[in-house]
């Protein structure tokens, strides 16, 4: 099903400081909010008219989104939104996350420095008190991006690049947040992040392990309703 552009509440064109970045942000928010439904075609000409730009920045933005796993390109067909995850894919992912991310949090607590902790605290603060969303469609997409950065920062401090690159290549948080749009998430996740930060401040590896395990288990439980 092709995406039908909705102009209500938007200007006919965008005027960002960088055209490609502006186009990317617009399409990203629509993908994350499910305004562009999983599996639906993304006609370049329609988006160019809707955003008031040429087709070139649309193609560049879609190529970036393809690298992030949010869109797919097929020969002779063009771009479409990535399909939604199946329950099996979701369950497999969470089995993996529970195997590796608590251990990564433990390693991060061992390796934590004052500068790294300060960066994590700033990331968590931005998530909770960042710029207000322009509209309801940007609320979770912004949180998803910030959440991905927070978790990646923990993995970076942990120092295990195999775990970090594997989770990054799966684009875990972007796909998870597409599942949970319109559900409760932000406040509960923020509270769980604060528990992680408390463990890092205390320099307690076991507490960090436990806090990450609980965070992932609760995230899994919040999302199961998406498959019912």
Q: How many β strands by DSSP?
A: 2
| Oligomer description | single chain
Low-pLDDT sequence parts: 1-17
Write down the overall mean pLDDT.
83
Shape: elongated
CATH homologous superfamily label of the largest domain: GntR ligand-binding domain-like
Architecture (CATH level 2) name of the largest domain: Up-down Bundle
Structural class: mainly alpha
Short descriptors:
about 230 residues; mainly alpha; Arc Repressor Mutant, subunit A; elongated
Q: How would you characterize the overall build of this protein?
A:
This is Transcriptional regulator, GntR family. InterPro entries: GntR_C (IPR011711), TF_FadR/GntR_C (IPR008920), Tscrpt_reg_HTH_GntR (IPR000524), WH-like_DNA-bd_sf (IPR036388), WH_DNA-bd_sf (IPR036390). One of its GO terms (molecular function) is DNA binding. A two-stranded antiparallel ribbon has the order 1-2. It is built from 10 helices and 2 strands; from the N terminus they run αααββααααααα. 67% of the residues lie in helices and 4% in strands.
Q: What layout of secondary structure does this protein have?
A:
Blueprint: H1 19-32, H2 44-51, H3 55-67, E1 71-74, E2 78-81, H4 87-111, H5 114-129, H6 136-158, H7 161-169, H8 172-179, H9 186-202, H10 205-223
Antiparallel strand pairs: 1-2
In brief:
With 228 residues, the chain is mainly alpha-helical. It has helices at 19-32, 44-51, 55-67, 87-111, 114-129, 136-158, 161-169, 172-179, 186-202, 205-223, and strands spanning 71-74, 78-81.
């Amino acid at each position: 099903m092709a995406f039908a552009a909705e102009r209500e509440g938007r200007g006919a064109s965008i005027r960002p400081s960088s055209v490609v970045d502006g186009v990317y942000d617009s399409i990203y928010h629509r993908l994350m909010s499910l305004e562009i439904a999983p599996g639906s075609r993304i006609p370049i000409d329609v988006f160019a008219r809707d955003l008031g730009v040429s087709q070139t920045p649309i193609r560049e933005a879609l190529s970036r989104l393809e690298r992030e796993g949010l869109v797919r390109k097929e020969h002779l067909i063009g771009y479409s939104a990535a399909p939604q995850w199946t329950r099996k894919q979701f369950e497999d992912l969470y089995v993996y996350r529970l195997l590796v991310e608590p251990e990564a949090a433990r390693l991060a607590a061992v390796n934590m420095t004052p500068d790294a902790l300060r960066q994590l605290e700033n990331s968590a603060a931005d998530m909770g008190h960042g710029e207000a969303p322009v509209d309801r469609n940007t609320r979770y997409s912004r949180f998803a991006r910030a959440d991905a950065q927070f978790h990646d920062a923990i993995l970076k401090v942990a120092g295990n690049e195999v775990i970090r690159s594997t989770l990054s290549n799966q684009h875990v948080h972007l796909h998870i947040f597409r599942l949970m749009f319109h559900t409760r998430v932000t406040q509960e996740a923020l509270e769980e992040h604060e528990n992680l930060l408390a463990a890092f401040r205390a320099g307690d590896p076991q507490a960090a392990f436990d806090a990450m395990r609980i965070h992932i288990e609760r995230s899994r439980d919040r999302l199961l309703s998406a498959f019912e």
